[in-house]
Amino acid sequence: MSERPYVIDRMISAKAIAARIESLCGEIQDEFAGTDKLVVVGLLRGSFVFIADLVRELDLPIEVDFLEASSYGDGMVSSREVRILKDLRGAIEGRDVLVVEDIVDTGYTMQHVIRLLKGRKPSKLRTIALLDKPSKREVEVKADWTGFEIPDEFVVGYGIDYAQRNRNLPYIGKVRFT
Ligand code: IMP
Ligand code: MG
Q: Which residues pair with 100 in a beta bridge?
């Protein structure tokens, strides 16, 4: 899958990501002010770095849970068919929930997850995506908060992979085949 040689061009620095998270957390805190205990739900695996930085900036009582949905396999194209590979550990009925996603691309994953979780009757459900590729959208969905809008490029780093690689890069870069 990843035999074609490529280089990674730096796109969003670790510093820019940190600054953006700080300002988003101000807005999230306002939205959830007074919440009993917010359930922050990370979508595995791409959001694991983002959620780690996000929750450490949030001055709110929180719980962390994870959901694994898969639409990409190891390739670069969405399969459009979303499967739940790992469900939440906890119940969310009557709870405030924040879903944390790495990228909204075609939108199928986010749409599927929102429908699934809304069916469990949370008291409030909000979504945040680090990256958004609006030009790739196939279903109408938008995260309540977005870190950065990016063009139609395949990106890696800061938790995001290409064929399971490059998740550990501290910045976001775009894949360029050579
Ligand atoms: P969607 O269902 O097409 O919106 O796909 C969303 C998921 O596809 C994200 O959670 C990512 O895991 C993955 N994805 C979308 N774009 C990229 C990319 O540029 N690099 C790596 N993964 C991506
Ligand atoms: Mg993902």
A: 42, 128
Kindly state if the Cβ of 171 falls inside 6 Å of ligand 1.
Answer: no
Mutate to test the pocket of ligand 1, among 71, 82, 83, 127 (most ligand atoms within 8 A of CB): 71
Which residue has the least CA distance to atom 16 on ligand 1? Answer: 105
The lowest-confidence range among 7-16, 72-81, 126-135, 151-160 is 72-81
The pTM for the full model equals 0.95
Q: Give me the residue spans of the domains in the chain.
A: 14-152
CA separation for the pair 127, 110 (Å, rounded): 9
pLDDT in tens, 39-83: 999 999 999 999 999 999 999 999 999 999 987 666 777 777 899
Ligand in nearest proximity to the CA of 109: 1
- CATH architecture assignment, domain 14-152: 3-Layer(aba) Sandwich (3.40)
- Give the strand pairing for 96-104 and 38-44: parallel
